[in-house]
């Protein structure tokens, strides 16, 4: 990536902020963008970087927000009206943009979502081994105090204090409605601790103890591996929990001139006519509409 885009992407990843990385992979003259041009699209529709002029940017914004909100990676093909120069590409989303001045674009849109966050309670050998293994898989881990609430959007809490603060950590994870809670304990000690907490049937079912899949683990790293395998299984079985908050998706409107779907942001060209609001893909369509309204 260009330095400014790559630095911004790294900062966003460290802050666990979701975004879409947009990269131009093919461009046809006279398009203003070139292969390698890149941008970041935020959850509110804001764009940093350059992937084309206003009309192309509008198409990128709308497709990127769809990708970020569950659509997954996609190849966006932006074509002027009547353009057929690019051959069909399986898996591509095609947008015919009547407002392009010419030139077709192919832009790869990749949502960048923070990895699942797993909080680990305890400094035991099993806890240390779990953190090391989770890092290999790219999962984000954080130390958690036994009596502190888990961070927002925590996907799992592993209670590995082995007697130190276990009850407090379990209660905090249950109260925070963490999707996956695992207690490192023998079957007997785990059951006794759940009895001590006075948990009802529904809450008891949410605590996995003994933690981990039964793989015959004996050493601390092996136990940690079994716990991580159980977490992976749980994440994929229910779908990954939200890694962080996504901004409310901006509203969309149809440009009354060209018929394009437009994502409404602070910078989207618009007109007010009486009690009606009109939104446009660019200033050209807005000006043509304004001329028609005045003439009418």
UniProtKB/TrEMBL annotation:
Q: Which domain of life is it from?
A: Bacteria
Stretches assigned to the XdhC Rossmann domain: 120-231
Residue ranges occupied by any XdhC- CoxI domain in the UniProt entry: 13-77
Give any Pfam family that matches: XdhC_CoxI
List the protein's name: Xanthine dehydrogenase accessory factor
Q: In which organism is this protein found?
A: Streptomyces murinus
